[in-house]
Amino acid sequence: MKRLEAKLYISIYEKDDEGDQDILELAKLDFHILQVMHRDEVKSISLWYKELNPGSMLGEYVRERPVECYYWALGVFHEPKYAKARMMFAKLIKMFSFFDDTFDSYGTLEELRQFNQAVQRWDEEDARRIGKCYGYVMSHISNTLDQFVEDRASAIGIACTKEIIKHVSRSMLQEVVWREEGHVPPVHDHIRTTAISTFYWALACISFTGMDACDDVFSWAISFPKIIENAAMVSRLMDDISGHECEKERSNVATAVDCYIKEHGVTVEQAKEALGSLVEEQWRSINEEFLTNTTVPVEVLTRAVNLARVMECMYKNLDGYTHSSETADPIDKLLNSCVNH
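RE: above sequence
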């Protein structure tokens, strides 16, 4: 998001007749140098994804979005020093997308109960016995995390990420149970569960792992601290507001919009407006936490803020991950089109 902002400011500044041309040229060079680095990384992610060949194993139910996953990572870290963290994030968010799609669009309730049990035990063989899709998802998440450790990522950070994934699995299963029972819970109960199933808690943890954060950071992260909870709620609410109609078609899971409508007897638009106000409340809390938290470094807190910022760009008007045409323009601006020198 910072790179999109920079490119916009460059285009504005170069129209200023009184602007400093040396500063303008340095800004353009900075953008170009970073863009070359980011292009190399997205090429690497695309080749990695091609080798996974998920289509042959998982079929048409998965959303194949490797470039969009890298764009997501780029929103969390754009700096050169965080190249490792960026690549780890992009790979893991793609794995989480497989996980999410399997719960939302593929598995039966009984299969997903068994899969959740396999995840709780972190047992790849149990997952394979349920079916090839479950074995594929479980083994690739596990192998990806193990590879991070081999590449000298924090073993404690990876262990924390695995524990959080177990929480996510339980929350996703609860959503499926609600769907199968036709149950539309109160808004508070829905958000409390589905904020975890966004995977943002796990993504925050893997972000810190890629940054080589100290052990104290992971002790803090595993507690689901308020700033991460706020970012996860921004993710959940914006996903449900912008993707309400799409989600009904894709998985028929009750969204926060459905829950608000049932609880308060309002229209879809009124529910979205009220939930939008709740997003603003989460942002105020994020800002307060960022300014007052003295437990962890600012660089760590910035990742939680950036996770929320990505949602503002990806889900402002529509689910920009499912409907990838929505993100085509910002991706083109960041990775394809250059700045003129």
